[in-house]
Amino acid sequence: MTTRTIALTEHLSKLGLTLDGDFLRQALQWLAQELIELEATQKIGAGKYERTASRTTQRNGYRERGLDTRVGELSLRIPKVRQGTFFPSLLEPRWRAEKALLAVVQEAYVEGVSTRKVDDLVQALGLSGIDKSAVSRICRELDEVVDAFRKRELMGAYPYLWLDALYLKVRQNHRIVNQALVIAVGVRETGERDILGFALGASEAHAFWKAFLRSLVARGLQGVQLVISDAHEGLKAAIAQVLTGATWQRCRVHFMRNLLARIPQADKAVVAALVRTVFAQPNQMAARQQLAEVARGMQARWPEAADLLRAAEDDVL
């Protein structure tokens, strides 16, 4: 028995293992690492320093990876390859669980959930919790995705372009301030609608809109024939300067809001229904005739709104 024990001890020492209280963790780590190396060899088509005709790529060092188990945390080395990617199937179940957790944290972050509540949520899932710095680190991936989306090249023509802005509360220099988020939505010649870009600024100033439109053109925006937006003077001037040759049309939704702001609350539904009949006409001539008729009908009770409707005829039609 003593001889067998000595022989086993010598064999384990050659494998880098020792018969102490940490034996199970060491043995499991050695076995996991061997399985990873074997799978990498199959993926590459050759072992370390081996030359074969079936080789598909080459090793390119290692990256460290931890794995929590019942016998403790294992420190594993994942081989990197020069072409393609390699991730051991041994770690796939945990990888999927981690991706699910990251998705939960990122979704909570996007929805504006506080760090403390994110920590409560993670603990409710049966985990030990997550600190503020970890949330920031996890959500840094979102910034990379958004940045790549904002800088992507625009391919093909977009005959129709919608421009709009909304104001959001943003934390800046430890204060909450209102900032304008400007958005561009384009329609392809085939009918698909795409978000082309967006930018955050202090206000909808002419210079800000002009810089935003120039950035779209620099990324490949072309073929714009009609631009739809509200009647913001700075935006209209920027469109005329940057998107030369494109026709501008006043956004019907924004116009209706401006018009109904001049109507008493009790009469808003009636006036809205009347004005919508203008846009329901089969052609422009009929629409202009209907607009004149609606404006005459509104003149007695809502003269200010009637004047606005007449003044906006060319813009909205």
What percent of the residues sit in helical stretches (DSSP H or I)?
Answer: 40-55%
Spatial strand sequence of the major β-sheet: 5-4-3-6-7
Overall pLDDT metric: 82
Main sheet overview: 5 strands, mixed
From N to C, what is the helix and strand string?
HHEEHHHEEEHEHEHHHHH
The secondary structure category is: alpha/beta
> How far apart are the first and last residues' alpha carbons, in Å?
99 Å
Count the DSSP helices: 12
Shape: elongated
Portion in beta strands:
15-25%
Radius of gyration: 32 Å
Extended strand count: 7
Number of domains: 4
Low-confidence stretches: none
Structural summary, described in words:
- With 317 residues, the chain is α/β, with parallel strands linked by helices.
- It has 4 domains: 2-81, no CATH class; 94-150; 155-250; 251-317.
- Helix content is 50%, strand content 20%.
- It is built from 12 helices and 7 strands.
- It has helices spanning 2-14, 23-44, 92-110, 115-124, 132-151, 206-218, 233-242, 252-260, 268-279, 284-299, 303-311, 313-316; strands spanning 59-69, 72-81, 160-172, 175-187, 193-201, 226-229, 247-250.
- A 5-stranded mixed β-sheet has the order 5-4-3-6-7. The protein has a two-stranded antiparallel sheet with strand order 1-2.
- Helix 3 (92-110) crosses helix 5 (132-151) and helix 6 packs parallel to helix 7.
- The longest helix is centred in the N-terminal third of the chain and has 22 residues, at 23-44.
- The termini are far apart.
- The mean pLDDT is 82.
